[in-house]
Specification:
homodimer, about 325 residues, mainly alpha, Farnesyl Diphosphate Synthase, two-stranded antiparallel ribbon, 2 strands, about 75% helix
């Protein structure tokens, strides 16, 4: 961004669609920092390790944009629930790393690896609790939606466990997992934002659809990057889904193409690096990556549809750009 | 109980101090059963395994008694928060079993042993979420107190981890752990009950003190039973605190008496059964058990103090009896 653009807020908002919610995102950061303070240093340390570890804050951003696009004014009405949603996401990352016995996360040693199972598990609980402390300030509808999203998260986790290293998994199963495990928080953020701005029930539902479809598009690209991404940009090694036996979309599509190297690595409880590299090559040879990207794009387009109907604003631009960026991103 | 007593409610309430809250406890049971239903069978199965696994429901009981003793009328005002508190307790049991790699719980194989780490961890999260769904229906004060209790729980867990197999631990450290890890939910249940019944702030605080002191008395007896209890009554083997390196009061007191067998077992990362039996004998030889029981009694008496000032009622009897039973129990 040039200096001129930086200095003129209206230009800045036109160039950077997220500048329009920069103030609210700053407040979310402050909330996050404040909420991880505990009399127990370990809790603060592990929470901070993840919270200040380079998250994209995409969930708070959706929540705030959905609020502002419907004319939501008082920042204090939205910042706390956006914080809650990011805290829930962070809590699940900590617990996921335990479940996957992950070595790295966001380019660093995972908390699980660095601080051990016990402290990481308890810190995940701690962040869940902090999330509900923030969410509990809102009315019953918001609390219920947030709790429902969390319930779906746990259900998605169980469902994913069921299809772990299971070559019977279909694209339909995949969608069921992703809707719960990833898209539910996107959906809830968008719905809550619109609801708190006073949007009509049908518009609230439409924003929920935006979030849901965006979440699916987002997860598919995550899956694609796990095969074709760059370790330095991703902050974690590629091939993790194969290593962990998680049914990602490229894996499922390549299995459907009958790639033996993929089923070999995916079914194996401890695949060697060589096996994983073979499987990655096999996925790259076929059309799985291309098809997964097309799949992601179609969900991003689905997401954009209700947005187009809204009156033009910086916030509408933000929501549209988000749908675009989620598909085009390299990390 | 004789048939005559059973048939005459007023007699029944006089004989069984908890009969006066039987209706509310039944509703809590129904809530618990309903709340563990999930589209994912695993979540329902593991939740049910623990929820229907013989919990004493002491936390809901305190909450309901504290509500009724101050004239709380509408059962629907108290049952949901009593449910939330029991759900939080159950969630922490699941996560604790992972942390301690526990083999048994309430006379059965632990969920961790039976269902594995992943599913047990996620089910713990699921129950936390259900708890906050119930708690989120209440006003900000109740949500905040409940979240604070949960935060203290996690802090207690971390603090206990710090003193794991650490012979430097003092009775003062122990109290700090127990206040957070066990007594915080007792305290909050009692406070919330009184608050929701409309008791004055000073009475709400006094009830909080009741819960806190009762929780400490309760935990000390748990510790004592881990040394001198009967496996069949407890539903778990004795000597678990020595095996896990958890600083229980009898262990701390016996360490203070210079029992080498106790420090030997307590400091050892994998003590043999023989070592543990030696340590248990050593604790039994000294005055640790007697002193721990006296300690528990003094906290139960502290708990009873504010209760005596209340006008006589079946509920006051219940609260008094509870303080008595907590100390006298064999399981």
């Amino acid at each position: 961004m040039t200096d001129v653009v930086k200095k003129v807020p209206s230009l800045r908002r036109a160039v950077d669609p997220f500048a329009s919610v920069a103030e609210e995102l700053d407040l979310v950061e402050k909330n996050l920092t404040r909420s991880v303070r505990s009399s127990e240093r370990t809790l603060t340390e592990i929470s901070g390790y993840l919270i200040h570890g380079g998250g994209k804050r995409i969930r708070p951003m959706i929540t705030i944009l959905a609020f502002k696009v419907f004319g939501g004014k008082r920042v204090e009405d939205i910042v706390d629930i956006a914080t809650a949603i990011e805290l829930i996401h962070t809590a699940t990352l900590l617990h996921d790393d335990i479940i996957d016995a992950a070595e790295t996360r966001r380019g660093k040693e995972s908390a699980y690896k660095k601080f051990g199972l016990k402290a990481t598990l308890v810190t995940g609980d701690f962040l869940f609790i902090k999330a509900f402390e923030f969410a509990g300030k809102f009315d019953e509808t918001v609390v219920q939606w947030t709790a429902d999203a969390c319930t779906r998260l746990t259900e998605g986790e169980i469902l994913q466990g069921f299809f772990n290293r299971n070559t019977e998994v279909t694209v339909r199963d995949y969608l069921e997992i992703v809707k719960r495990k990833t898209a539910s928080l996107f959906e809830t953020g968008a719905k809550v934002g619109a609801y708190l701005a006073g949007a009509s029930p049908s518009l609230v539902e439409e924003m929920g659809e935006y979030g849901l479809n965006l979440g699916i598009a987002f997860q598919v690209i995550d899956d694609v990057l796990d095969v074709v991404g760059h370790e330095e940009l991703l902050g974690k090694p590629t091939g993790m889904d194969l290593r962990d036996g998680n049914p990602s979309l490229p894996i499922i599509l390549a299995l459907g193409e009958g790639e033996a190297a993929v089923s070999d690595a995916f079914e194996c409880s401890h695949p060697t690096d060589e096996k994983i590299q073979e499987a990655i090559k096999a996925i790259g040879r076929g059309r799985a990556i291309h098809r997964a990207k097309t799949f992601s794009k179609s969900y991003a387009e689905l997401a954009s549809r209700p947005i187009k109907k809204l009156p033009p604003s910086f916030y509408r631009n933000g929501l549209k750009t988000l749908a675009h960026l989620v598909v085009e991103r390299d990390f």
